[in-house]
TrEMBL record:
InterPro entries found in the cross-reference section: AGP_acyltrans (IPR004552), Plipid/glycerol_acylTrfase (IPR002123)
Name of protein: 1-acyl-sn-glycerol-3-phosphate acyltransferase
SMART domains noted in UniProt: PlsC (SM00563)
Originating species: Citrus sinensis (Sweet orange)
Ranges annotated as spanning the membrane: 76-98
Amino acid sequence: MLVGHPFVLLLDRYRRKFHHFIAKLWATLTVSPFLKLEIEGLENLPSSDTPAVYVSNHQSFLDIYTLLTLGKSFKFISKTGIFLFPVIGWAMSMMGVIPLKRMDSRSQLECLKRCMELIKKGASVCFFPEGTRSKDGKLGAFKKGAFSVAAKTGVPVVPITLVGTGKIMPSGMEGMLNEGTIKVVIHKPIQGHDAGELCNEARNSIADALGLQS
């Protein structure tokens, strides 16, 4: 990433496909030797040149690695504190991950504004609309920020259900890696101009898939 970064800023400042390719390799090599990964619905992924808002349930730190294996150059939203971690934080900065200070309304507005700017430039963004990792595996309430971005920019929302990450690497126990299978369910994209309706439809899709897999 360091070697290619000047060229990425010059030639692909917004999507940064090269960095995301490196991140996919990193995530795949990190996860694949230890876990079985099953992916359903790959045909529902928009083309690489189609900007979209991806939304997923959030159970584990492993969720990010799992989503990176899909090879899509979307920008995650992450707590500002994560950027302070050596190597991981540097990689996140080069990939264009969007920082967010929790409980800071100004930071939240800046984050949503940045997401809309990126989408208008052809990039995609990825939200965990629950806002934090689930402690008990249950699906929490969704915040509407991601869906407001989609409604205002007119891009599709792609719901993704992650099953099993919370059992393999429980929230708050990042030093633990249990054996198991992770299932990724990519749902059909949804579009609309009402953030509330998009939010409800996306959450229902994810909740239904979690229910079927439980």
